[in-house]
């Protein structure tokens, strides 16, 4: 029986993880669940899974949650609040695995703490790795942690790697990674029409059920840009050896091209429970609840090269990882600020890339050798991005 802590339990990844956990009560016990503000969903999850701890990261909502559980079957559960509590539950002695599913930079510190505590880190929060880069990978290596990717693409790549492969190492026989992308909702929209895209249109992903921020990232293909950076770190490969391939059916989740000409692909229905279950059962496999792929219903699969004029955020991600240092941190921070401004209808959809590019132009690729340096760059990049937004609004 393994103890699991789910950081970001009420989001789509957290919900899918609990679905998988419920299918294997003999193998996993929920030790801690965390949420930011959705206390109603967290309460229902606590009733169903009876964790020892619940964390409400937003202190303003913590007291409301305590009032909500008073007199309920989970009234004796320990309730913590604040960002520090996320790190506390991620490093508990009886936690074996940590599902890192908090979106954005907020997930960095507890995820890094889990790695330093030698946990099995199930990484769904790509921003944590994008921001901290080698600092994170070094923490995994030095503390005996196990890092397993949850993003469907990185999980697919991991499944296609040679037997015995561990993240952070180069598979010498692998010459290229083919990182697939759906292309999002605007793959065929006339570029001239992208100026008038609304938040509601941007979050309507054709294949995946994701949160609003990640859905916008998919629409701009920044999501794939962050995954590109993540893939360079997870699989220790040069960005020029990673090719993004638009595959709108989302049946092949990614591929690895080997020196002998073999290309291995991982396929399946687009359901996040597949990579979650693979990582939770690794190195074995168990049932995820996902329906078997009916290959006859697929009929055909299409592949396209991404148009960097349509998707400038992908170009910026390549530039950031090639520059190195703090530039991926700057890219990520500016993107978070830009996406938030777009969702709040303060800037246009096409302004997202402009904000990121103008923000990156104000930084040099200084070495990101300490966590303090990374966090400082993150703060500065957010300030710069907000200043750019203020200029665009006038």
Automatic annotation (TrEMBL):
* One MF annotation (Gene Ontology) recorded for this entry: 1-deoxy-D-xylulose-5-phosphate reductoisomerase activity
| EC number(s) on file | 1.1.1.267
Residues involved in NADPH binding: 10-13, 38, 125, 127, 211
NCBIfam families in the record: Dxr, PRK05447.1-1, PRK12464.1
**Residue ranges of every copy of the DXP reductoisomerase C-terminal domain listed in the record:** 267-383
Q: Which residues form the 1-deoxy-D-xylulose 5-phosphate reductoisomerase C-terminal domain?
A: 147-235
What's the top EC group for this one? oxidoreductase
The answer on whether this UniProt entry bears the keyword Manganese reads yes
Instruction: Give the protein name, as stated in the record.
Output: 1-deoxy-D-xylulose 5-phosphate reductoisomerase
* Pathway the protein acts in: Isoprenoid biosynthesis; isopentenyl diphosphate biosynthesis via DXP pathway; isopentenyl diphosphate from 1-deoxy-D-xylulose 5-phosphate: step 1/6
Describe the task this protein carries out. Answer: Catalyzes the NADPH-dependent rearrangement and reduction of 1-deoxy-D-xylulose-5-phosphate (DXP) to 2-C-methyl-D-erythritol 4-phosphate (MEP).
Q: Which residues form the 1-deoxy-D-xylulose 5-phosphate reductoisomerase N-terminal domain?
A: 4-133
The UniProt family comment states: Belongs to the DXR family.
Q: Which residues bind Mn(2+)?
A: 151, 153, 227
**HAMAP family assigned to the protein according to its UniProt record, in alphabetical order:** DXP_reductoisom (MF_00183)
The reactions it catalyses are: 2-C-methyl-D-erythritol 4-phosphate + NADP(+) = 1-deoxy-D-xylulose 5-phosphate + NADPH + H(+)
Keywords in alphabetical order = Isoprene biosynthesis, Magnesium, Manganese, Metal-binding, NADP, Oxidoreductase
Report the cofactors: Mg(2+); Mn(2+)
Residues that coordinate or bind 1-deoxy-D-xylulose 5-phosphate: 126, 152-153, 182, 205, 218, 223-224, 227
Q: Which organism is it from?
A: Methylomonas rosea
């Amino acid at each position: 029986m393994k103890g699991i802590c789910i950081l970001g339990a009420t989001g789509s990844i957290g919900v899918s993880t609990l679905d998988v956990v419920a299918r294997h009560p003999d193998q996993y016990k929920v030790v801690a669940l965390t949420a930011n503000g959705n206390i109603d969903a967290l309460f229902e999850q606590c009733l169903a899974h009876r964790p020892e701890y619940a964390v409400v990261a937003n202190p303003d909502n913590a007291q409301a949650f305590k009032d909500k559980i008073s007199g309920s079957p989970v009234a004796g559960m320990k309730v913590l609040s604040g960002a520090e509590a996320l790190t506390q539950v991620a490093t508990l002695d009886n936690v074996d695995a940590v599902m890192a599913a908090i979106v954005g930079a907020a997930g960095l510190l507890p995820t890094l703490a889990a790695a330093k505590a030698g946990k099995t880190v199930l990484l769904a929060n790509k921003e944590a790795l994008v921001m901290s880069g080698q600092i994170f990978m070094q923490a995994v290596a030095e503390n005996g942690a196990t890092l397993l990717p949850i993003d469907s693409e990185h999980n697919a790549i991991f499944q296609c790697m040679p037997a015995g492969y561990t993240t952070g190492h180069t598979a010498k026989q692998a010459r290229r990674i083919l990182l697939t992308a759906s292309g999002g909702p605007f793959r065929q929209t006339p570029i001239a029409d992208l100026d008038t895209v609304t938040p509601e249109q941007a979050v309507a992903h054709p294949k995946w059920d994701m949160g609003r921020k990640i859905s916008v990232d998919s629409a701009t293909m920044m999501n794939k840009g962050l995954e590109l950076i993540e893939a360079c770190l997870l699989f220790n490969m040069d960005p020029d050896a990673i090719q993004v391939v638009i595959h709108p059916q989302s049946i092949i989740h990614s591929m690895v091209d080997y020196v002998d000409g073999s290309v291995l692909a991982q396929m399946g229905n687009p359901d996040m429970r597949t990579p979650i279950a693979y990582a939770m059962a690794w190195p074995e496999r168990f049932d995820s609840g996902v329906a078997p792929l009916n290959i006859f219903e697929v009929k055909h699969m299409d592949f396209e090269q991404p148009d960097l004029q349509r998707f400038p955020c992908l170009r910026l991600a390549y530039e950031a990882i090639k520059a190195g240092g703090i530039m991926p941190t700057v890219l990520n921070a500016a993107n978070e600020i830009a996406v938030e401004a777009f969702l709040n209808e303060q800037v246009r959809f096409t302004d997202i890339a402009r904000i990121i590019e103008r923000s990156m132009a104000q930084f040099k690729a200084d070495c990101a050798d300490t966590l303090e340096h990374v966090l400082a760059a993150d703060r500065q990049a957010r300030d710069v991005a907000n200043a750019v937004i203020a200029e665009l609004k006038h």
